[in-house]
């Protein structure tokens, strides 16, 4: 068969159309480059001029709560433990990014906000760090993002806020760390310790693992360099840094590395290792995981209360079929015992009066001797103490399992799964000899912060405070402005001090979508960073990797994931995700069929999960 010939002029017309389209794209991108919204130098200069107009400190009393934001800092006022100091942060509405430089002070007893405006204030920033010492708040680094997210500016300035006078002062000192954001700072005696972070130039992202010390008495910076052959954590950002006695702990974080494939593309690594730093010798040691550690995650928050560190939130990226990535935002609370290095999940204590009753009312013999039979299961939670957190958690888990076993015997006996995956009852209603009414004195709606990342978390007067952060709903980023508290002495309930307000979201226009596609194409060509959370680190041993490996999914997470996303799935997608969750949970078809004499708890749990799936 002969080769078809092209009509004269057709190739030329096609080339001209492509050239014109490319020129149009180039012109549009050039106009974006010259946009005033992306000229960071001009924006920061304008802000500086406005700051120069301020002549004195002005405090607005009892103002509305701050606008939604993430990547801000929240600190306990060392002069008043019932006051929180909030600074900076960022907000993205789907079209523009807003970076803040405002300073708020919140009285937790009066439940009132103050807005402080001072001359010579730092320029707006997010992903910075703050440390309070004596009557001062110290702030270092951070980043400023242009509204269109086309330009980034990383800071290396160091600021000091006098909490008595609300006056700012910039500390221009030699030997400070390079510009960065996503780093962490911790206070040890009279020293501020800075580690890690990253620097983004759009074409290149550099992650740091350098260690700097600032002496608050001598006002001097010092870089601590690793000794030959010594252990040292890898470069990362977004980790957590916390102190206990003469040990400083580092946990988790995120970084990227160039893969070994032909394209030399970058892949993300979610770290889950734990390190301890001795501030007397500046030696690092790796801490072996023990207890029940959380799975690898990014964007979590941590703070210290007495002998334990508390971890909340984070996100897990799960790769589904057809290279689809799904993000699961977590609201779990974990504890890390600082003296013996053991992890454990922190559960709220049940009230002593809590009773779960299963009433069995006979239908065939309503007046018979069995008509008043009742099964009462009392689930009284004993106090959770730091010394035996794990053993008491196991006891509560056993009680919970016993309760579920009682119900699962009835569930499994009366349910079967057809070929289509649907759950049907194997017994007709009129054939049932008894009816189970599940009654509980526990409130059906438990107050608890939703899953999120990049929130603020501090402890003051035995109370944990969680503020703000970000989560995703479908394709929208929801920035939060809620404030929750938890009494760490009682561990009985979360209290919502400030509920979340409605978040504004602006859908991107077609031109913006095209530009984003072009940027993605360009990033692939230039090897720029892609999405994060693609892999977990393999620094831990095989036993730890089995617990924290990439794509791992717990039963509770799976239910939350399905309930949050299931309404928008087609039937085929549902089945695909069921199979994916099945694989992650290690539940084969044979494992879903109970054998004689085996334990029914896992089968009941799996059927409950499928019940959630079929509901949506």
UniProtKB/TrEMBL annotation:
Compositional bias ranges of the Low complexity kind: 422-435
InterPro entries: Kelch-typ_b-propeller (IPR015915), Kelch_domain_protein (IPR052588)
Superkingdom to which the source organism belongs: Eukaryota
Region called Disordered, residue ranges: 1-36, 355-389, 421-441, 502-557
Acidic residues: compositionally biased ranges: 504-527, 534-545
Residue ranges, compositional bias (Basic and acidic residues): 10-36
Protein name per Swiss-Prot or TrEMBL: Kelch domain-containing protein 4 isoform X2
Annotated source species: Theobroma cacao
Gene behind the chain: LOC18605038
């Amino acid at each position: 068969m002969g080769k078809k010939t092209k009509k004269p002029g057709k190739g030329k017309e096609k080339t001209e159309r492509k050239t014109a389209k490319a020129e149009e794209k180039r012109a549009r991108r050039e106009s974006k480059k010259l946009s005033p919204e992306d000229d960071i130098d001009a924006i920061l200069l304008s802000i500086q001029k406005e700051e120069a107009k301020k002549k004195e400190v002005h405090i607005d009393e009892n103002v509305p709560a701050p606008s939604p934001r993430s990547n801000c800092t929240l600190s306990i006022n060392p002069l008043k433990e019932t006051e929180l100091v909030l600074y900076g942060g960022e907000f993205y509405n789907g079209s523009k990014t807003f970076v803040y430089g405002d300073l708020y002070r919140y009285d937790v007893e009066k439940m009132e906000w103050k807005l402080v405006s001072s001359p010579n204030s730092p320029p707006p920033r997010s992903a910075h760090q703050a440390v309070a010492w004596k009557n001062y708040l110290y702030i270092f680094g951070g980043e400023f993002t242009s509204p269109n997210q086309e330009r980034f500016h990383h800071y290396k300035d160091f600021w000091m806020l006098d909490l008595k006078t609300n006056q700012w002062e910039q500390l221009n000192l030699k030997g400070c760390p390079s510009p960065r954001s996503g780093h962490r700072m911790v206070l040890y005696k009279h020293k501020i310790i800075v580690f890690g972070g990253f620097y983004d130039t759009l074409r290149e992202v550099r992650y740091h693992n350098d260690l700097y010390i600032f002496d608050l008495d001598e006002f001097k910076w010092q870089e601590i360099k690793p000794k030959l052959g010594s252990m040292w954590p890898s470069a990362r950002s977004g980790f957590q840094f916390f102190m206990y006695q003469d040990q400083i702990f580092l946990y988790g974080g995120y970084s990227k590395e160039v893969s070994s494939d032909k394209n030399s593309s970058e892949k993300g690594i979610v770290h889950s290792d734990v390190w301890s730093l001795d501030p007397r010798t500046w030696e690092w040691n790796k801490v072996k995981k023990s207890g029940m550690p959380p799975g690898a995650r990014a964007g979590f928050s941590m703070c210290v209360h007495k002998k334990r560190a508390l971890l909340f939130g984070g996100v897990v990226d799960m790769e589904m079929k057809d290279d689809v990535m799904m993000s699961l935002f977590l609201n779990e609370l974990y504890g890390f015992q600082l003296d013996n290095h053991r992890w454990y999940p922190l559960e709220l204590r049940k009230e002593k009066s809590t009773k779960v009753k299963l009433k069995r009312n006979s239908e065939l013999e309503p007046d018979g001797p069995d008509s008043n039979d009742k099964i009462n299961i009392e689930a009284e939670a004993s106090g959770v103490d730091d010394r035996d957190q794990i053993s008491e958690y196991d006891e509560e888990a056993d009680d919970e399992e016993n309760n579920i076993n009682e119900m699962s015997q009835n569930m499994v006996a009366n349910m079967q799964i057809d070929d289509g995956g649907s759950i049907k009852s194997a017994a007709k209603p009129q054939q049932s000899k008894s009816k189970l009414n599940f009654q509980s004195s526990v409130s059906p709606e438990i107050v608890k912060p939703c899953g999120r990342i990049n929130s603020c978390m501090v402890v003051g007067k035995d109370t944990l405070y969680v503020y703000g952060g970000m989560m995703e709903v479908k394709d929208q980023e929801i920035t939060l402005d809620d404030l929750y508290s938890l009494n760490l002495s009682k561990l009985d309930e979360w209290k919502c001090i400030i509920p979340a307000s409605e978040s504004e979201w602006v859908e991107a226009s077609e031109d913006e979508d095209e530009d984003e596609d072009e940027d993605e194409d360009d990033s692939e060509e230039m090897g720029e960073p892609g999405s994060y959370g693609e892999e977990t680190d393999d620094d831990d041993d095989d036993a730890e990797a089995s617990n924290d490996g990439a794509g791992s999914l717990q039963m509770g997470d799976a239910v939350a994931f399905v309930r949050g996303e299931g309404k928008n799935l087609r039937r085929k997608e549902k089945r695909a995700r069921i199979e994916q969750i099945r694989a992650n949970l290690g539940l084969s078809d044979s494992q879903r069929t109970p054998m004689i004499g085996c334990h029914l708890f896992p089968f009941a749990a799996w059927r409950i999960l499928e019940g959630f799936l079929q509901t949506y």
